[in-house]
Write a structure and sequence with these properties.
- The structure holds 2 protein chains of 2 kinds.
- Chain A is mainly α.
- Chain A has 2 domains: 50 residues, no CATH class; 209 residues, MetI-like fold (Orthogonal Bundle).
- Chain A contains 12 helices and 2 strands; from the N terminus they run αααββααααααααα.
- Chain A has a two-stranded antiparallel sheet with strand order 1-2.
- In chain A, strand 1 and strand 2 form a beta hairpin.
- In chain A, helix 3 crosses helix 11, helix 6 runs antiparallel to helix 9 and helix 9 packs antiparallel against helix 12.
- The longest helix of chain A has 31 residues.
- Chain A starts with a helix and ends in a 10-residue tail after the last helix.
- Chain B is of the alpha+beta class.
- Chain B has 9 helices and 21 strands.
- In chain B, helix 2 crosses helix 3.
- Chain B is elongated, with a radius of gyration of 24 Å.
- The relative contact order of chain B is 0.12.
- The chains are: A mainly alpha, B alpha+beta.
- The interface between A and B is medium-sized, with 19 and 25 residues.
């Protein structure tokens, strides 16, 4: 057992690892190929199996025959950052309220309100997109960045509320009470004592918001026409009867970059076993 | 400032947490609230602090309504049973936090926080985070934060109960000194330990099932417990309470003749009573009331022997370690002059005689 277990463990990790890393490796090699390079099946070793070229990468930064991903990248970044920020601010305020105060409207109580938030994510996007379309049309925000930000907030807010309610519930109420006794009004309690102790929770919520916001294709696809294009749209737009695999791969990898950097930054919070354990 | 509570009442799910609580808390005095767990001590403190509302009753400070004053305007400091500090702030910042909120100048904040931390012996730990301190040190930080403000009302809810014995003794001794700097503050200290309540309190409030059942100076409560319940709560081990009869000059317990009626109980009409006797006032003897040993506790320097006499359980406290077998038949001698007489309802009829003289005579 003692000998076999590590072997078993690392075998499983290696298998799973290659399963996860495989597609990335594939995309990475493909992004350095050209039309000839992709003909002969899967090849991985540059110079030996195929001749590497920067064609794909050249194409996504304005090369002829490709597309410029810089503007879509910026659009995505603006939408994701703005929507995440708004969601975190509103979400943590809502979550704090739900965690600390009791609401009651007929049979509707805190648990129900939290459930309503969560069900926003259970609903298929297809159901939501039509009302969103009409709403944005009413206020003339179709095909604009502010319009997409609003829609993205609607998608991200439930996640932020959900994560933060859980986190705030883990912070002892005595902290709030003590802050009140020490002279803080309710809002000051939140800003001065609860938020500073919520960094791990906020980080996790931010990570979720960023991933969902950044990866959204469907709503951007349905709610924009000619003016605004987000990165996922730009990548998909590359599809044609003969897809330029190298350009697609480069664009996909380029689009992943910010999330990977973010994940590396916040990894220590994500891997921590019990988040609220930070508070005694 | 003087706090005055009148008929405070709070029931949660049909259970009384506070019931007809009426009390006056004077400035510059230390009030100890003693009661068993769940007696309503913490609830009372939370109501005084504004953290908990009541169903009815009034609370005034210097005559003005206090119930509607928000927590953050009550000028109240509280130390919890658990060690609660701000986890994101270091020790110094923790103590400085309420001072800054109070709008004191930067120099004043520095001076007071340093002074307060020095007073609790944490001068060297300014930079530490609370999580890097031991339990006792964390509670000292909480204490320093409460003391630094010089708040008008200082609430201490069993502050030392989660500390180890030695530390608890030490802090308890230091506490009187710490508190002496608080001037006109109303100080309220909740505890389950009789010794603590008696030692620290200028005024003792005895709580039971949400009610205050006696208020008085420590010696008054100790010498003249109003009811059998008070007598049990303020003695450790709880006072022995047993049914007995006075008949023609004799006191009988469980149909056994126990003793002649002592002088201080003379003149009580014949009939059934409840008698109270502290564990220290019963001893094992060659002859006397006989009973069976049901339980023996040895606590270092003392032995507590539980003896069943008919229905009545007795606890006998003897100095030193004694080897008493379970089930053994023993005889007990009561000290008749130390008998408290209560009526059938448990209300004090006559206290024991010469309590002080007898205690000092030891």
């Amino acid at each position: 057992m003692s000998r076999l277990y590590p072997t078993f463990k690392y075998t499983v990790i290696a298998l799973w690892g290659s399963f996860v890393v495989g597609p990335f490796l594939w995309a990475l090699t493909t992004s350095f190929k050209d039309a000839n390079g992709v003909q002969g099946g899967a090849t991985y070793i540059p110079w030996m199996q195929y001749k590497p070229t920067l064609l794909g990468w050249h194409n996504i930064f304005g090369g002829a025959g490709g597309i410029d991903v810089v503007q879509p990248f910026l659009n995505s970044a603006i939408i994701t950052i703005a929507a995440s920020a708004i969601s975190l601010v509103l979400g943590s305020l809502a979550a704090y309220g739900l965690s600390r105060y009791r609401f009651k409207l007929g049979f509707i109580k805190n648990r129900d309100i939290i459930f309503f938030f969560v069900t926003q994510r259970i609903m298929p996007p297809v159901v939501l997109v039509i009302p969103f379309f009409y709403l944005l049309q009413q206020v003339n925000l179709l095909d604009t960045i502010p319009g997409l930000i609003i829609v993205t907030v609607a998608l991200l807010l439930p996640i932020a509320v959900w994560v933060m309610v859980d986190f705030f519930n883990g912070i002892p109420r005595e902290i709030d009470e003590m802050a009140m006794l020490d002279g803080c009004g309710p809002f000051e309690v939140f800003v001065r004592t609860i938020l500073p102790n919520s960094l791990p929770g906020l980080t996790v919520a931010l990570m979720f918001c960023a991933v969902f916001g950044w990866n959204d294709f469907f709503f951007a696809f349905r709610l924009t026409f000619t003016q605004i294009q987000t990165l996922p749209q730009a990548v998909v737009a590359l599809n044609s009867s003969v897809p330029p695999w190298w350009t697609l791969s480069a664009a996909a990898l380029f689009g992943l970059l910010p999330l990977i950097l973010l994940a590396i930054r916040v990894e220590r919070y994500l891997s921590r076993g019990s988040l609220p354990g930070a508070v005694r | 400032m003087t706090l005055h509570a009148t008929d405070l009442r709070l029931a949660v799910d049909g259970v009384d947490h506070l019931k007809d609580v009426t009390a006056t808390f004077q400035p510059g005095r230390l009030h100890t609230v003693i009661g068993r767990t769940l007696a309503g001590k913490t609830t009372l403190m939370r109501v005084l602090a504004g953290l908990q509302g009541v169903d009815s009753g009034s609370l005034t400070r210097d005559g003005a309504d206090f119930l509607t004053t928000p927590v953050w305007q009550r000028d109240t400091a509280m130390v919890y049973q658990q060690f609660i500090n701000y986890p994101h702030l270091n020790v110094f910042e923790n103590v400085a936090f309420p001072l800054k909120r109070a709008g004191l100048s930067r120099d004043e904040v520095q001076r007071r926080a340093q002074e307060s931390l020095a007073r609790v012996g944490l001068a060297e730990f300014h930079e530490r985070k609370p999580s890097q301190l031991s339990g006792g040190q964390q509670q000292r930080v909480a204490l320093a934060r409460a003391l630094a403000r010089g708040a008008g009302i200082l609430l201490l809810d069993e502050p030392f109960v989660n500390l180890d014995y030695k530390l608890r003794e030490q802090l308890r001794e230091e506490f009187k000194g710490l508190f002496s700097g608080q001037g006109d503050a109303v100080v309220i200290y909740a505890t389950t330990e009789p010794a603590e309540a008696m030692m620290l309190g200028d005024v003792v409030l005895v709580m039971h099932e949400g009610q205050i059942i006696q208020i008085g100076a420590p010696d008054e409560v100790f010498d003249r417990p109003a009811t059998t319940t008070v007598a049990r709560i303020i003695n450790d081990p709880p006072m022995n309470i047993f049914a007995g009869r006075i008949e023609s000059g004799q006191i009988t317990v469980a149909d056994l003749q126990a003793t002649h009626v002592p002088v201080h109980l003379a003149g009580l009409p014949d009939g059934s009573y409840q008698f109270g006797l502290r564990a220290t006032d019963v001893s094992l003897a060659r002859s006397g009331i006989e009973g069976e040993v049901t339980f023996v506790e040895i606590s270092g320097s003392e032995t507590f022997v539980h003896v069943a006499v008919g229905e009545a359980p007795f606890v006998v406290q003897i100095e030193g370690i004694h080897d008493v077998a379970l089930g053994e038949l023993v005889a007990m001698k009561l000290r008749p002059e130390r008998l408290f007489a209560f009526d059938q309802n448990g209300t004090l009829v006559r206290p024991a005689a010469n309590e002080h003289a007898a205690r000092e005579g030891h």
